[in-house]
Amino acid sequence: MLSIRVTAPATIANLGPGFDLIGMALDKPRDIVEVFLEEKGEDEVKVSGLQASDIPLDPNKNSAMVAAKAVLKKVKKENFKIKMNLIKEIPPRRGLGSSGASSIAGAYAVNCILGNPLKSEELLECAMEGEKVACGSPHIDNIAPALFGGITFISSFNPIRIIRLEPIKNAEILVLSPKIEIGIEKTKIAREILPKEVMLKTMVNQIQSFGNLIIGLMKKDLNLIGLGISGDHVIEPARAKLIPRFYDLKNRALENGAYGFSISGAGPSVFALVPKGEGKRIGEILYSILRENGILSEYSIHENSEDGVKIVS
Amino acid sequence: MLSIRVTAPATIANLGPGFDLIGMALDKPRDIVEVFLEEKGEDEVKVSGLQASDIPLDPNKNSAMVAAKAVLKKVKKENFKIKMNLIKEIPPRRGLGSSGASSIAGAYAVNCILGNPLKSEELLECAMEGEKVACGSPHIDNIAPALFGGITFISSFNPIRIIRLEPIKNAEILVLSPKIEIGIEKTKIAREILPKEVMLKTMVNQIQSFGNLIIGLMKKDLNLIGLGISGDHVIEPARAKLIPRFYDLKNRALENGAYGFSISGAGPSVFALVPKGEGKRIGEILYSILRENGILSEYSIHENSEDGVKIVS
């Protein structure tokens, strides 16, 4: 029996104007996936950890398992059966790439056991199968940073081509998760609320913000990165409606020294890029704003991780 | 009597997906502006050079003069009168930033004579006044590279904020100008033909191309720059209709080794980024395509200039 244990990080997708294109790996939390390959028996998933009861156990509906099985299919080793322990440390449906991390962890684990027959792009394709069962749409903006770490830009969808950018250093990432439920099909709802078309002028403004983000990342200019993150003219205005007191949170974060602020992935978590050591102070301010409005939340302080998915034992 | 002589370069705006945001300075041609400041007499413009008879002599309609007078106004020295010799080496209405170069040259010349009271951003504002009388809209995507050289990204419109990127090295820029007239109000026509709205998916594709362009420029990756240039999903498809055999030209350029191909500014010139030494061969091919279709054209081979506007004597 061949076995392996891997972890994959939570991620923040979009980073403001980079909708469907950009994502960032966080240092924590990380999902853990333990995989055993056998030539007999049945596929089986066990799930433990955060909100474990929300995660499907059906091997055809569990993201990590679907991704893992996609690897077996691609390398034509479907005679193998998979026993999987999925330990959820990334809360599902918060906008932190939970299903993306599980998916890439599942795919990566099986690929490692088999001696790495698949290239990175193929692993992403397999993980997309897992993401599809969880979110309804096979986007890779959370999966790519969970695989490569740092910050990833999707240079091409077909064929998949990823450019990895160096992680942001010397700054903290404050994540605030309001305790609300957008709905069980959260990603679908957050996608349906988006405009179908945008004005040409708005597109130019969006590209300008994206330019600031990318140039900022490459020049390691935190103020410019923040200007980019905060300058989403299309996705954020639509999705802000799903997040209580969104603009209060954003304004107060920026007034208090955050470089940039936007929605994490499809939300409802929001995030701020803040100077080192400032995450706790700004986190308390944002927590209080929601608390005063009768909404509980949690905040956590992160770094942009160098590492993506990796073997732990 | 105080006098100066400055030159400003032709420019290529947009570079494919960077509509209204990106521009590149060429090594040649360069407009020449000679300015004499006097405290008596009247404003007067003389124009010589290419298509000189198309350039207005009215001081309120000539781009270089309007920009120069805007400097005097901004520094409250409207008692000065301007005598100007404008020598056009950049052909007007070809999509090579002709009026933008004249405008920044006029503004820069007067600012120099006065001991540089205005900062770069203010000079751009003055040059925009000149561009407005020539093109009807005060865009700075041609003016900024004519001022700074290299490649410029407009990080913010209001306040104006420009980020200068290093010029592309080790490649030639082939410019092909079909001898057609889109109309005397060419920029207006080229703007009116654009879609008012774009699909969200198209916007994402456009941002992806823009990301490839910017990351390519910063990593000095000619193939990635070219992928970005060639990936305009919004402006090019609309304006290609104004340019004869556009897609034949594009396909043949790319098949023959060009890194990227798109429309220069508002057209009708097109440009290709090509490997060093390949400009002439590819230029002949493109020239022949138009010639076979009964359309005369000119091609010229350039480099991305380090220099923007500068004093020559």
From TrEMBL, chains A, B:
It holds the Pfam family GHMP_kinases_N. Its main location: cytoplasm. It comes from the Archaea. ATP binds at P91, P92, R93, R94, G95, L96, G97, S98, S99, G100, A101. It is found in: Cytoplasm. It catalyses: L-homoserine + ATP = O-phospho-L-homoserine + ADP + H(+). One of its GO terms (molecular function) is ATP binding. GO terms for cellular component: cytoplasm. Residues 216-286 form the GHMP kinase C-terminal domain. This is Homoserine kinase. It comes from Thermoproteota archaeon.
